[in-house]
Design a protein that fits this description.
The chain has about 210 residues and is an alpha+beta fold. The chain has ten helices and seven strands. The strands form two sheets. Strands 4-5-7-6 form a four-stranded antiparallel sheet, with helices on one face. It has a three-stranded antiparallel sheet with strand order 1-3-2.
Amino acid sequence: MAMSVRETAQALGGSTRYEVFCLVAEAGHPMTVGELARRLDVHPNVVRPHLSKLVRAGLLHEQVESRSERGRPRLLYTPVAGTVERWAEEPPYQQLAVLLAEVLLTGDDPRTVGRRSVRSLPSDTAAPVQAVMSELVRHGSNPRVTGQGEMTSVVLQGCPFPEAAATNPAVVCAIHMGLLEGLTDGLVGVQVASLEPEGPYQGACRLRLTVD
């Protein structure tokens, strides 16, 4: 059964487990338990439970080594397609926690905090709508374009922060709107027109982009 964004993000919640995932994601080749243990300077038994949880969360593939020489085949780990782009940087729940802490510390408007937390896409970005979609995926959303033209409509399937949004939608949705505006600040060809939140467990917030 497919894991939800929330469950996947929680699987990356531990710092060691997240480091294990990043090592596999950045390796460029299948990694073994022994190799990961050496990189982390820990016993292999420390690594194994983290790998098991990452496999169950759909973040890593586990396969048995194919070998001709004698000896027990090793287990090899590689990232599941699409997970590196989405999860190898700051996980969505970790990002949200930092932004909420900044709102409390500074007293600034949540939308302003979200907006200044991201770098805008380069003004000369090719295929700007697709670039925005890719960034939305990286920040934990699952966007689907439902209408194209001067006003492009996007359904954001699967809220990346359902529990937080259900508890305080005004703050969490304002942060999300700020993130969207921050991504498109200065981007030629695409600007955020509106974000219409829905119930977080319905996962169908509607984003509208003006496209030149």
